[in-house]
Specification:
Structural class: alpha/beta
Helix content: 40-55%
Largest sheet: 7 strands, mixed
CATH topology of one domain: Rossmann fold
CATH class of one domain: Alpha Beta
Number of helices: 10
Mean pLDDT: 96
Distance between the termini: 42 Å
Shape: globular
């Protein structure tokens, strides 16, 4: 499917069918009370979703970079990490993405560059459900864009970004935008910079972007997943196209406990401003309060002109 929205609706319908089948079987063959059967059906689907989420952490651990001592977690913190990531994944894939539509909001009195939001692989603009209220509260103009088709070549998204940048600049009456991008979206932003330069760019803030690839991309489908494999020709060409000035425009926020980007140090980009976190999963980067506060601080610095080093 071309659309993440349609893909996830299809998966939700499959999960609903599975829950109904389990519930019906419990009533028909086990003579279970209907309400108990309904709980069993729903609980079974949720359990499978939890096991998939846990398996992501297991797979990521096979390719993980060394966790610095300051970011190592105890058993309780690991449970919090799993719970937050599972909650974030359930909300994103079961509600925010299926219900989202790309949108633009302009604040004519804003003193900050408008923000263009780029989501990651297999997602859409619904990923930013927790950041959008913060941008609204700060009266920062912003726009989201859906990067489709889902499994396209990363360079195929560049025209979408260029059009969104031009439209956002025109709507906000400015000549520069900031880009906030999650996961693959950060690579899309860098590909756009390669194609169109940085004259219209105030800052790129990436969250959990596999700047050097992720081993888990080998399990993904599509040209973009192939491009995100460590050492791919596409990643090497992208890095070779950049100079120090390009990298200085990037802030990379990443977590040492990323369950999709592994090795986790892949998100560390040489020459960029790198900000480390611990105890946060990949999807939860878009909702974790500490991470969102860091994003807002980076955006606030663009208005104040404060140096970032």
């Amino acid at each position: 499917m071309k659309s993440a929205r349609r893909l996830l609706w299809a998966l939700l319908l499959v999960q609903l069918a599975a829950a109904l089948l389990i519930g019906w079987s419990a009533v028909a063959f086990l003579e279970m009370a209907p309400w108990r059967a309904a709980l069993l059906g729903a609980g079974s689907v949720v359990l499978v979703r939890l096991l998939i989420n846990m398996n992501n952490f297991v797979m990521a651990a096979h390719f993980a970079s060394a966790t610095p001592p300051a970011f190592r977690l105890g058993a309780r913190a690991r449970l919090r990490l799993l719970a937050e990531e599972f909650r974030a994944s359930m909300l994103v894939t079961s509600w925010f993405v299926p219900c989202a539509r790309a949108a633009t909001r302009i604040y004519p009195d804003s003193r900050q560059p408008p923000v263009l939001l780029l989501h990651g692989y297999g997602c859409n603009s619904g990923y930013w459900a927790h950041l959008l209220p913060l941008l609204d509260a700060a009266r920062i103009s912003h726009a989201t864009v859906d990067l489709e088709p889902v499994a396209a070549d990363i360079d195929d998204y560049v025209p979408l970004v260029e059009r969104a940048v031009r439209e956002l600049c025109a709507a906000a009456g400015t000549d520069r935008v900031a880009i906030v991008a999650h996961s693959m979206g950060g690579l899309v932003a860098r590909a756009w910079m390669r194609a169109h330069g940085s004259a219209a760019l105030a800052r790129v803030i990436t969250l959990g972007t596999p700047h050097h690839g992720t081993a888990l991309a080998r399990f993904g489908l599509g040209k973009n997943a192939f491009q995100m494999r460590p050492g791919s020709d596409w990643l090497r060409a992208l890095a070779a196209s950049e100079d120090g000035a390009d990298r200085a425009l990037v802030t990379s926020l990443y977590t040492h406990h990323d369950n999709i980007v592994s090795p986790q140090e892949s998100s560390r980009l040489e020459g960029a401003r790198n900000i480390e976190f611990g105890g946060v999963g990949h999807v939860a980067l878009g909702s974790n309060p500490r991470v969102l506060a860091a994003v807002m601080d980076e955006l606030a610095a663009l208005a104040s002109g404060a140096p970032r080093c």
